[in-house]
């Protein structure tokens, strides 16, 4: 094939966009993180080395944010994936009405996070009138005492977790469902002929075949856990006492409330390193799989 | 067979219970939007949250009088719509160039696209904000549209799809005398409807909910989209839940209607993100 | 209408391996030329080079006496029928056929006139508004032909146009294509891997192997006078049995060795003379499966004992696979390595019924007058 003169023309607009609005800011992020840039500051911008990184890692709020992101990932990822897997398995049967259920479980995915956050603020409303409080009271036969979820240092983060699971589960469910449907039917027939029970088919056919899908789903959700922002901004503003702050919330706070662009950049660089590590882990896990086969 | 029956019944029951949990917030919102403001919060914990005794559209008209809802809506439509339409053109052309053309630097550029795919917006938000500030783009539509037109993930979806199209189609077109651009428009695009639908839906879904970026780069109501609208409305005293929910219903309605109409494509689009991995 | 010439055409794959080497072929104006060879022999590459879909690394392509190497596919005015037809799936039959005309920016009336005429010729007029998906394999094939013909191109290229059809339809459409070509009198290059198809189309046949032209000739000449061992083995169904032997002369009588036996040959003077310089030297001899018989007819002039390997009954004839005391040559791979690959099984094509089982020993008669000879390089000796 010859080199097309028009090829560059085809690729140029997209490449320009990616370079100007992703690659350049990315390089800028690394550059700015080593300076002391503050918008509107009279001090001249200068190179300060690792000073910003030293500062953010000495900052209790940022450390708390990282901890929050991590616990968010540790709770949400297994719960959400498990639930999504369960639902996908239930829905992956030729029974009447399954499409209806799929539609229903997927519906929250199309809800903007900001709207979801606002709705859940009401669900978590304090006092006996709050929907969650009332429901818990019924379920525990009156033992539950009404709490103010979003202003409770212990319950605020779990509240955000629940909100996120509600909104994000359908996304994973659909991906897993597609993974399930890609499993060749012969494998189940072969297993059935070999006398494998339903449970054994799940363990020895479904889950191994679903391995790559599950790795993907788990790691994408982990990455999303570290990008958590919208719900925090709307539901708790990081409070109470940093109980729900996240890395991204801290970055935005630094850059906008305090005009510390350099500090915000340093935080985003840390965030990127975390995402990169997770993506690298994903590649390794997937490659390992290929070597085995 | 009897055992089969029992299994199916229990599957239905568990699905129904889960469905109730998933449906509750949506019902709460829709019903709340139709109730008098004062009753929304008070009745949230009782059955009246879902079975109201009186309904009205008062909240909906309140939304229009209390804030410029149409403004938010049109802003959202304009921003998301532009990103989808221009993005489809730009990214499909690039995907085609990567999949089917030979050019100097192609492999290098494709490696770059793959790398960019793992950079989340959040990781570059602050410097990107600094960049658009230098460009003097703050508080405009441009700043909410232009940076999101080129999309590495969309390019990859197009790339994979175009790779799978039979090469003979393009060769036939070439022999029939069609140029590269003509071939793309007349032969490739009509045969790539699924991937265009997938990319359009995923892009729209992402952009309709965009919150962080508009929050960073806009300050006035003039160019702000719906997600910022609801956040602002939610903090606008007095706190009137009925109005907020009415706002929410109207905000999610366009995309929900799209979803119900093109459900198959939504699901396929989302599943496509997984296949990549 | 135009003559086509390949002049010293060379082409390498991306990895540097040669796909086509020093290829020369002249196709006369209005001729039907069939390029035949095993898959991967470079025949499709040659077609694509002519179409302008690929560029030759060396040499020149001439259409109507003009070098077209740097011209686009459209400027060359060639049309092509693809193996999978490459019909545009989103267009109706009419849109498919008129697409090349639209690209030529012809007037609307002229487009309609030509599309209708072509559709009528190919009996497609009833299905102009259908989409390719709604057509049968044979109909799709005809649409592909129509799209190529409607342009009235200088050269018509067909890349395995029948291989997606079932056997019966293939025979029918083969005849149609051949008749159509004669009627339109357009220079046509037809690529196939099927030697039966190549032989029956009625034009000259160019046999290609390993990117090199082996022989160009009429079907009959290819069968009767194969230029080398590859052609001998490739043409014919099954191909010729070629085996390694020695030529001896006793009392002016030429003999060849077959295991322990010396078989005497009764050849005319001309052949005898040609073979003189191979006496007492290794030589390759070839015998078509048709020249082996299990009955003692008058044409048979030697008898050998063979061990039956298997028998394929085809109804009107039988193919008898056997092992004998000679080493047969694998004709397909003869030229590829430069060294000879041996296979032990030979084949006879028998008209009558054979009552033998695998493993049994039977006697077969050889018609040695029909023996072919090839030198050590595999080239035919007259």
| Gross CATH architecture of the largest domain in chain C | 3-Layer(aba) Sandwich
Oligomer: heterotrimer
The top-level CATH class of the largest domain in chain C is Alpha Beta
Order of helices and strands of chain B: HHHHHHHHHHHHHHH
User: Which structural class do you get from the secondary structure elements of chain C?
Assistant: alpha+beta
Q: What is the strand and helix layout of this fold?
A:
The complex is a heterotrimer of chains A (293), B (277) and C (382).
Chain A (H helix, E strand, L loop, with lengths): L4 H29 L17 H7 L2 H32 L6 H9 L6 H11 L7 H9 L16 H26 L3 H9 L4 H29 L3 H6 L11 H11 L3 H32 L1
Helix pairs in contact in A: 1-12, 2-12, 3-7, 3-9, 3-11, 5-7, 7-9, 9-12, 11-12
Chain B lengths: L1 H32 L3 H7 L14 H9 L2 H32 L5 H12 L3 H14 L7 H4 L6 H13 L2 H9 L4 H9 L4 H16 L3 H6 L8 H10 L5 H21 L1 H14 L1
Chain C lengths: L3 E9 L5 E10 L4 E5 L6 H9 L6 E6 L2 E2 L5 H4 L1 E4 L11 H11 L4 H14 L15 H13 L5 E5 L7 H18 L2 E6 L2 H6 L3 E6 L2 E6 L1 H6 L4 H6 L6 E10 L2 E6 L2 E4 L4 H7 L6 E6 L4 E2 L8 E12 L4 E12 L4 H4 L4 E9 L10 E6 L5 E3 L5 E2 L1
Parallel strand pairs in C: 3-8, 3-9, 6-7, 7-8
Antiparallel strand pairs in C: 1-2, 1-4, 4-5, 9-10, 11-12, 11-14, 12-13, 14-20, 15-19, 16-17, 16-19, 17-18, 20-21
Helix pairs in contact in C: 3-4, 3-5
Protein model, in words:
The complex is a heterotrimer of chains A (293), B (277) and C (382). By secondary structure, chain A is mostly helical. Chain A has helices at 5-33, 51-57, 60-91, 98-106, 113-123, 131-139, 156-181, 185-193, 198-226, 230-235, 247-257, 261-292. In chain A, helix 5 crosses helix 7. Chain B has 15 helices and no strands. In chain B, helix 11 (193-208) crosses helix 15, helix 13 (226-235) runs antiparallel to helix 14 (241-261) and helix 14 (241-261) packs across helix 15 (263-276). The model of chain B has no long low-confidence stretch (mean pLDDT 87). By secondary structure, chain C is of the alpha+beta class. Chain C folds into 2 domains: 4-225, P-loop containing nucleotide triphosphate hydrolases (Rossmann fold, 3-Layer(aba) Sandwich), CATH 3.40.50.300; 241-381, Nucleic acid-binding proteins (OB fold (Dihydrolipoamide Acetyltransferase, E2P), Beta Barrel). Chain C contains 11 helices and 21 strands. In chain C, strand 1 (4-12) and strand 2 form a beta hairpin. The two termini of chain C are 37 Å apart. Chains in contact: A-B, B-C.
